[in-house]
Each structure stands twice: as structure tokens, then as C-alpha cells.
Specification:
- By secondary structure, the protein is an all-alpha fold.
- It has a domain of 67 residues: Orthogonal Bundle (434 Repressor (Amino-terminal Domain)), CATH 1.10.260.40.
- The chain is 54% helix and 0% strand.
- It is built from 6 helices and no strands.
- The radius of gyration is 19 Å and the shape is elongated.
Length: 114
């Protein structure tokens, strides 16, 4: 392997430089604020699909216990979960496609190493 930098490597280096400048307060970066869905909104989202908690969790690769905690207001979804819930709300089929059409049961996913 040579020491020649690829275009992708240069892009990553540049992006990391921007992040460091932002952390140091030297540069403002654009950001997107994702809604923090309240328990009622999460329940409404699931019910819109007419799915039980277990089936909703399985379909979108969520932890059913976490979903229950969110719906009952005992926990708030973290940033990644909020983004996923937003995408599920706006374009659920994109999530299904990204996870694979046969994601009905995570235990049957043969693409994961044993």
C-alpha cells in the first residue's frame, strides 16, 4: 500500500478539519434540528401503521422495550432514534428498503455473521 492519498481520503480530512474548526469555535456549521417526538406522537405513528408494538419494532428494527418506554413517557429517544422515527414518519418505505424487504423478524436475517 502506498502513501498516496485518495480523493475520498482528502474529503474526509477536509471534513474533519471543518469539525475541528467548529469545535474550536472558529467556524459555524449548518445543522438540522430533528423533532423530539413526544410519547403521544410515537403512539400515533405506530397506530397509523396499525401495528402492535412488537410488529412495529420488528418492521423498523427497533427494540420493543425501548419503544414501550418511549410510548409511556419513561424515556426519550436518543438522537439516532429520533432521526429514524422522523424518517419512518415521512418515508417508511425508505426505511424498509434500507433494512431489507424481509426484515419481519430480525432473527432470520442471514446477512449478519453468526
Amino acid at each position: 500500500m502506498g502513501t498516496e492519498r485518495t480523493g475520498l481520503g482528502q474529503d474526509i480530512e477536509s471534513a474533519l478539519g471543518e469539525v475541528l474548526a467548529h469545535v474550536r469555535g472558529e467556524k459555524e456549521l449548518p445543522c438540522r434540528i430533528v423533532d423530539d417526538p413526544a410519547a403521544g406522537r410515537i403512539i400515533a405513528l405506530r397506530k397509523r401503521f396499525r401495528l402492535s408494538r412488537q410488529k412495529f419494532a420488528d418492521r423498523f428494527c427497533l427494540d420493543v422495550r425501548a419503544l414501550q418506554e418511549w410510548e409511556q413517557g419513561r424515556r426519550v429517544p436518543d438522537r439516532a432514534a429520533r432521526v429514524l422515527l422522523t424518517v419512518i414518519d415521512r418515508n417508511p418505505e425508505a426505511v424498509v428498503r434500507a433494512l431489507g424487504e424481509d426484515r419481519g423478524d430480525r432473527r432470520t436475517d442471514q446477512s449478519l455473521p453468526s
